[in-house]
């Protein structure tokens, strides 16, 4: 499978091919046994995917990189890692898919390194990353921090993942305490600057510590989500319009599940399914820098309803295209 789907100089743009983190003695992608000292790492992409990804990673725009793993596709439990880029409209452009034997810092690092090296060797260009968006996964964090193409980028935390972990910690709280916690976190999330965030954070933590029920939670939240390595989950870290969650990548993983009809396959057939998927995907064009999202009718109605019921307040800003919602 690896040899019959390897890259050739005359390969069609939309034809998917397999690549590895290193080569075997015959010059093809190396297929590991899956043991800890011999990991299985195989990537799938196409020239069309690479070319489109490079447009999203243009030097003239803010470049956000996403990576996420999905499961229950392989009959031996190997996860599939997808990585790609989003633009100001939160449109997701896949870069490559990888099947790996485990999710350690080494496997993640080899996936990202081999993709960057592939782009460099086939297109003669370097990936330029401004921000890496993901979940609170130490292995992925360590991998990105070790690679020159990614190490200088800010590590952004998926806000949904923050809320998911907070909900687990607060599920036994009284409703009033849960409301206080969630309201405080939302206020911190929507701060428009570091200065505003510092003031808000100080005030909300002080409020939590005044309640005996929330003192332990205040310490957990400060250690994990304020002082920890995954502290950038506020909107001011990304330009207007860009994703503040890993939802674009996770949504694509749902596309993978739907394409394979939520079934598990042996490795050869799973590779073929992912090859077929990539060949059905059309490359995307990133939006221009002056892009402004047009709200849907349903979104407008929902916003009007929330304002009429005083659930949110809206204030003008210096930007005529933006308002401040609280």
UniProtKB/TrEMBL annotation:
This is MULE transposase domain-containing protein. It comes from Phytophthora fragariae.
